[in-house]
Every structure is written in structure tokens, then in C-alpha cells.
Amino acid sequence: MSSTTVAARPADSFVRSFARSPMADHHLIIFSTVILTAIGTMMVLSSSAVIALAQGESPYYFVIRQLIFLVVALVLLVPLSRMSPDLLRRLGNVGWLVACVGLILVQTPLGFEIYGNRNWIRIGTLLTIQPSEFAKLGLVVWGASVYHRNRTKLHNPWDLFVPFAPGALTLLVLILAGKDLGTGLVFGAIIFCLVFFVGAPLRFLAPAVLAVIGIVVVLVMGSPNRMARFMIFFDPQSNTDLASQPMAALYALASGGWWGLGLGASKQKWGGLKEGAHTDFVFAVLGEELGLFGVLLVLGLFALLARSGFQVALQSDRMFNRLVAAGITSWFLLQALVNIMVVMNLLPVLGVPLPFISSGGSALMANLMAIGVLLACARNTPRARAYLASRKRASGPRMTSVLAAGSDS
User: What is its EC number (predicted)?
Assistant: First the structure.
């Protein structure tokens, strides 16, 4: 027997043992999130230094802001991951209300525009928040709580769509009122996924999809800026100035090769990607600096996160847990897919950040809070509950008795 075979057996045994563990998906979600967030922080530092200097700031300006939001997000993630899903379910209405208020505040004097999208509110002189990012989490938790309450009546089309559809569409309309079509499309996709996962028939979903396509066409044609972005997707020569950013993203990916140019060595972040080098087009900088290896690593981590999240949904025995896990996982997967397809020029520019990777405090906080909720569901599958309960019993207090010296007993 070769030494290679002998050495391989312990590793193979460990993998099999880990895969059978009731907490395997919980640990894999943590692992993929930690690595994605670490890569994101590194790429924000690399891609934003040039832009920060051009704005007269320190080269560490954007990464310091990202780290501050990361610390706050981790402080929120830990209690959320330990929270009972029953408590999360009871907070569903609160989540919808907070999301609604935040999106309404965008239309008040607190709100302001960036590149034509009114999607942010300013609190004080330094803090800006994007309510639509938190609204995605609010939608998933609230929608799951609504369907959990009506779980015995979902064969009735009325209970299948009311009150979920009016509440979800209210949030979507508020997002679109800020002219953010990219976020609106992701939000609409999350709505579709929740209705699909709860078991809505295709005869209801197909007309809804056609209606959404029609609305998107109207919104695109009604905005010269959106129309220009869609036109350059089909004909880059129609507006060479707007087409330069997606073309620079392709040049970045093409020049990365197998192993990349090296961390910090991107050329396209020096103006080709404009202000999107550290936000919507950070994946292009990652591909240029870390090459195909870095690209496949990030894709593999998103695939691992998706696999683990859907496994939690499949293993859950409560409708709320299933829908929350499936909804959050779909959100991350769809948003990552849209961002990467935009960078690869397979979709028009939509202004959608890459989860955990792109610079943006609100997006990072919302993403990590959602991971906390997903971990709470992962700890509440039947096997995980039994395992954690057995550990709790095994580590219970031990009672000892010391008899006094000289006792008559």
C-alpha cells in the first residue's frame, strides 16, 4: 500500500465526517462569508485608493469606511445568528414597516441623488444610508412570516397573493420612485422567488413575468439615461463615452490571464472604469489583479454559499425557516449573477453591487445581517436542533456533594 493512499485516508475521513455533521451547512455559510468579505475588503483597498486620491482624500478613505461598517455589521450579525426564528417571525411586520419608512424618507429632503438615482438618505455630515439594501432583508423576513401564518390556506389564490403582493409591491414602487431600476429588478426577482418557493402555479407566474417585462420596457424608454445604457449594450458605437466603462471591464478581465497582474497592479482602475472601480465594477479589478484564479475562487465561494443556503431551506421543517433561507440565498445568488454578467458585458449596466465584495456600507451591513438570519435558520433545522440540545445536556452543570467531616451519616 502506497504512502500516498495511507495519507489520503485521514483527509477523506475528515471530509466525510464533516459532510455528515448536522452543523456542516452552518459552518460552510460562515466559511464562505468570511472569505468573500475578506476578499472584498482587500479589493476595496486596492480599487479605491486611486479614486480617493483623486477626490483629495487619503488612499485608505474608502476601506476605512468599509471596515467601520463591517465592525457594526458583525456586532449585529452575532445576535441575529443566535435569535430564535420564532422571534424573527414576530419581527416580520416591524421589518416591513422600517423598510417602508426608510424608502419614504428617500423622497424627503433627507434623500439625495447619485448618478440620477435618488436612493440614499443623509444623516448628519458623514453618514449615508441606502434603505433599499435593508428593504431586501425586510421583504424576505416579512414575506416568510406572512406565508407562515397562512400556511394552511395557500391552496386559495387569494391567500397566496394577499397580503403579500400588495405589501411587496408597495416597497417595489417606492424603490422605483427613486429611479433605481437595477435595485428594482433585483427586488422584483426576490418577490418572484418567494412566490415561486411557496408553490404559486405557473398560470399565475407567467403573466406576472410578462407584465414585469412590459413595465421594464416602459421605464427604460421613459428615461434617456437608461435608454442610452441599453442602446450601448447592443451598439457600443452609439455612445462611445458611456460604452467606455463596460469595455474597460472587458479589457480588465482579458488582461488578467491565469494568475492576474498582481494585487494593486490594475490599469483600468486608473480611469477606465471611472467611479465604478470599487463599486459596481470591482469584479473587473479582481479579475485583472487576481486573474482567472481569483474569478473562479469568488464564483466557487458564491456557489458554496448558495449550496449551503438551499440545503438549509430543504432541511428545515418550518415554512418560515424554509422561505427565509431560500429567499436570502436567492437574493445573494441573483444579485451576484447580475453584477458579474454586467461586468462581462452580458447585460446592460444596471448599477447593482456585488455582495460582500463591492464598496458600500449599507450593502455590506444588509448582506451580513442577512447572513445572521440565515445562520439562525441553519441552527434550527431538525438535526441541528437535536445536536445543539444534546451538547447543551452534555455540558450541563455537575452537582457534587461534600459531606462534613465527622458527620453521623
Answer: 2.4.99.28
Nearest of 388, 389, 377, 369 to residue 308 by alpha carbon? 377
Question: If 0-12 CB within 10 Å is exposed, 13-18 middle and 19+ buried, where does residue 405 land?
Answer: exposed
Beta bridge partners of 117: 114
Answer positive or negative: Cα dihedral of 225, 226, 231, 234.
positive
Query: In the structure, what pLDDT confidence band is assigned to residue 409 with cuts at 50, 70 and 90?
Result: very low
Q: How far apart are CA 262 and CA 278, in angstroms?
A: 17
Residues 6+ apart with CB under 8 A from 398: none
Closest CA to 353 of 32, 84, 132: 132
Predicted pLDDT of residue 3: 52
**What 3-state DSSP class applies to 117?**
strand
Residue 249 near residue 281 (C-beta atoms within 8 A): yes
Strands ordered across the beta sheet of 111-114: 111-114, 117-123, 127-129
Mind listing the pLDDT tens digit for each residue in 343-370?
999 999 998 999 999 999 999 999 999 9
| Beta carbons within 8 Å of 185's beta carbon, 6+ residues apart | 216, 338, 350, 352
Phi-psi region of 199 (alpha: psi -120 to 50; beta: other; left: phi over 0): left
What are the φ/ψ torsions at residue 128 (nearest 5 degrees)?
-125, 140
Measured between alpha carbons, how far is 115 from 176 in angstroms, rounded to an integer?
15
Q: In terms of C-beta distances under 8 Å and separation of at least 24 residues, what long-range contacts does 149-154 make, across chains too? A: 151/319, 154/198, 154/199
- Enter the C-alpha cell of residue 90: 414576530
Exposed, middle or buried: residue 244 (CB in 10 Å: 0-12, 13-18, 19+)? middle
Helices (H) and strands (E) in the chain, counts: 16, 3
**What is the DSSP secondary-structure string of 142-176?**
HHHHHHHHTTTSTTSHHHHHTTHHHHHHHHHHHHH
Instruction: Examine the pLDDT at 403 and tell me if it is beyond 50.
Output: no
Beta-bridge mates of residue 121: 111, 129
351 within 8 A of 117, measured Cβ to Cβ: yes
CA atoms within 13 A on the CB side of 167: 26
The pLDDT value recorded for residue 405 is 43
pLDDT tens sequence across 79-103: 999 999 999 999 999 999 999 999 9
**Which residue from 325, 335, 339, 340 is spatially nearest to 371, judged by alpha carbons?**
325
Type of residue found at 31: F
